[in-house]
Design brief:
single chain, 339 residues, alpha+beta, 60s Ribosomal Protein L30, Chain: A, Phosphoribosyl-aminoimidazole Synthetase, Chain A, domain 2, seven-stranded mixed beta sheet, five-stranded mixed beta sheet, 33% helix, 26% strand
Length: 339
């Protein structure tokens, strides 16, 4: 095997290297008829009688722990439709003149470990060294299944539903800031703060798969949505538009991660518009909302009712310091101000 530190030329990965990585890091389940292999350009799957859910999302804002991000972000959207993530395919683009075997193996290992922990088969994809980029880019495609009776429609919110939020906002935002600004933060604050913020993607974590599963076990859920790019505000507007339902939110009820609040203030970012993977929005009939919150809390996932669905239409109102106002709209995620 070639030296881990040798830079690789643009184009496909060397065949021997790719074959070795596939053999060591991909894994199948009985439903994978044809999986990863040299000369194999697509996976063949044989799902059961359930519906198949497909999701694709790139990771572009971070390089560190990029494999973990890619799996979790794609799995979240499967879970928000009531499904179970089952198969993952990945396109891995690596920068020319910067990529070594060691770099590639770290990403393969991250993806593989994240898939194994969630019972997901890493079953295919594509990888290459690419000119014109300065950091790795991972484009993931997650496939999952759901029975017809368990499918949760984004348009399912009903007037009077309570809106619940799990964990807290800007979990991913704080982690990205800590990674991208670690030297700057370390010069002004403690090394422990940087490490603590980076760890947020693991604890409380950016996955909402378990949040969704617990909520569904507790009550009939009308809608699930994970606020990501554009933060909680954008997530709420997306939920409003998908369901044609006006929402009313109490700012003081929104759970906020202390580290996220601190770093957003340091860098002048509005926490409502800062990337928020790790939180889950849950719409449920008011009589069930406390039961859902309690079930989540008992499972170690903090949750709170932050507002209600009030009437048909599109819009999000927010109560702040005793006054009702429009929830701010963010054309771009606040994190882009510092990247």
């Amino acid at each position: 095997m070639m030296s881990d530190q040798k830079l690789l030329a643009p184009g496909k990965l060397p065949m021997d290297l790719l074959g070795d990585l596939i053999a060591r890091y991909t894994h199948q389940d009985p439903s994978v008829v044809i999986g990863s292999g040299i000369g194999v350009d697509a996976a063949v799957l044989a799902p059961d009688e359930n519906l198949l859910i497909a999701k694709s999302d790139p990771i572009t804002c971070v390089a560190e722990d990029i494999g973990h991000y890619a799996v979790q972000i794609n799995a979240n959207d499967i879970a928000c439709l009531g499904g179970q993530p089952r198969w993952f395919l990945v396109t891995l683009l690596l920068p020319a003149q910067k990529t070594t075997v060691e770099n590639i193996e770290v990403i393969f290992r991250q993806i593989s470990d994240a898939c194994k922990k969630m019972g997901i088969a890493l079953c295919g994809g594509h990888s290459e060294i690419t000119a014109g980029i300065d950091r790795p880019i991972v484009v993931g495609q997650m496939l999952g299944t759901v029975s017809r009776e368990d499918l949760i429609y984004p348009a399912g919110i009903q007037p009077g539903d309570d809106i619940i939020l799990t964990k807290g906002i800007a979990i991913e935002g704080a982690s990205i800031i800590a990674r991208e600004k670690r030297q700057e933060i370390g010069e002004n604050f403690s090394v422990e703060l940087v490490a603590q913020c980076k760890q947020l993607i693991y604890e409380p974590g950016i996955s909402v798969v378990r949040d969704a599963q617990i909520a569904r076990q507790a009550a009939p859920i009308h809608a699930l949505h994970d606020p990501t790019e554009g933060g909680l505000s954008t997530g709420l507007y997306e939920l409003s538009r998908a369901s044609n339902m006006k929402l009313w939110i109490e700012f003081d009820k929104i759970p906020i991660i202390p580290e996220s609040k601190f770093l957003c203030e340091v860098y002048g970012l509005d926490i409502l518009g800062t990337i928020a993977s790790g939180a889950l929005l849950i719409a449920v009939s008011s009589p069930y909302s406390q039961e859902v919150v309690e079930k989540l809390d008992k499972s170690g996932i903090p949750a709170a009712v932050i507002g209600k669905a009030i009437s048909k239409g599109i819009g999000v109102k927010m109560k702040l310091e005793g006054k009702d106002m429009e929830m701010p709209v963010f054309d771009h995620d606040e994190i882009m101000k510092i990247l």
